[in-house]
Specification:
alpha+beta
Length: about 130
């Protein structure tokens, strides 16, 4: 999608899928199994029915997810690196973060704060 297709009050984020990977036969101490996953659509995290996810693993992943949802320069490591190690140093699992689809949002649907006017952004107005 081209930036020209996005209205002034819209922005796009990538939906993400985060999947557990591990060497065959490895013992995982976080309670995960290879193939366990969750999806992130905007700010909403979705787990498959009946599947859990370690809060410690999730805590390690959370700081990376908003950055991975946004477009980044092709040379930025966030664009190229997709696997994150389990935070338990004794666990060989990894978490593969995959961008799956773009989702469009409107500013007013995501915050109560008004979008600044163009004049306020370029310093010629007060933004009110």
């Amino acid at each position: 999608m081209q930036d020209a297709d996005v209205r002034d009050d819209e922005f796009e984020l990538w939906d993400l899928r985060v999947e557990v990977t591990a060497p065959e036969g490895a013992t995982l101490y976080c309670g995960a199994r290879p193939g366990d996953h969750f999806e992130l659509h905007g700010e909403m995290l979705h787990l498959p029915p009946g599947q859990g996810f370690s809060i410690y693993s999730l805590a390690a992943l959370l700081p990376l997810l908003p950055a991975k949802q946004r477009d980044t320069h092709r040379a930025d490591w966030m664009s190229t690196d997709a696997e994150v190690a389990c935070p338990d140093p004794n666990c060989p699992s990894r978490f593969r973060i995959t961008r799956t689809a773009r989702r469009r949002f409107r500013h007013a649907d995501t915050t109560a704060v008004a979008l600044p006017t163009v004049a306020a952004q370029d310093g010629t107005g007060d933004g009110a």
